[in-house]
Amino acid sequence: MSEHEEGGGMALDHDTPIPYLERIGTYYRTLGYGAPYRWAHYAEVPFAPLKKPLADSRIGLITTASPFQPGKGDQGPGAVYNAAAKFYTVYSGATAAEHDLRISHIGYDRIHTTAEDSRTWFPLAQLRQAARSGRIGELAARFHGAPTNRSHRVTLETDCPELLARVREDQVDAVVLVAV
Predict the structure, then answer these.
(1) Whole-angstrom distance, CA of residue 111 vs CA of residue 18
(2) What is the number of other CB atoms lying within 10 angstroms of the CB of residue 58?
(3) 60 contacts 137 by C-beta, under 8 angstroms
(4) Residue burial 5-37, b: 16+ Cβ < 10 Å; e: rest
(5) Separation of CA 17 from chain center
(6) What pLDDT digit, counting tens, does each position of 98-141 carry?
(7) pLDDT digits (tens, 9 = 90+) for 22-77
(8) CB atoms inside a 10 Å sphere around CB 142
(9) What are the Cα distances from residue 147, in Å, to 30, 45, 51, 123, 160?
(10) Residues whose CB is less than 8 angstroms from the CB of residue 37 and which lie 6 or more positions away in sequence, other chains included
(11) How far apart are the C-alpha atoms of 105 and 64, rounded to whole Å?
(12) Residues 173, 48 contacting (CB under 8 angstroms)
């Protein structure tokens, strides 16, 4: 009998959520910021139900992954955090093409997670398959990259309006947002 089975299906003691918010707060205090990092938190979040079934809908994709930038240090799976690989403006790419996107510029838990399977943070292949199988109506011709520059003001005043304009140009019915 495994340790998991002996515990009556309960999670093991070491299997606990990662205290991400606490870790980021500690990180910013260590950098010398006086005020703790303030997470975006809204009392109400807009939600728009689909107007038609997924099988009849055009789906868009927005990712926080960055295009590979040769000469900007290690950006491969397992790379340490690499601020040089960040991007600061919205970008778009053709969904019919292959893309080399990376996540070394993101502060994720590198102890418990690897970046070896890009399909977990850039599900373009899965969305293509969903379109071929009829699960979704079609995939928009472009995907879009959302910068992660940690500025609420820039995100709300610059990046979000640009992303919205682009998905509207693409005439999508719904968007898959993959924020690493």
Answers:
(1) 11
(2) 19
(3) no
(4) eeeeeeeeeeeeeeeeeeeebeebeeeeeeeee
(5) 19
(6) 999 999 998 777 877 778 888 888 999 999 999 999 999 999 99
(7) 777 787 788 787 777 777 777 887 788 899 999 999 999 999 999 999 999 999 98
(8) 18
(9) 24, 21, 29, 18, 10
(10) 24, 25, 28, 150
(11) 9
(12) no
25's tokens? 């707060």
Q: Which two tokens stand for residue 48?
A: 């728009």
Task: Dig out the tokens for 61 from the structure.
Answer: 């994709």
Token representation of residue 35: 């005020």
pTM for the full predicted model: 0.81
The domains of the chain are located at 54-178
30 touches 48 (CB < 8 A): no
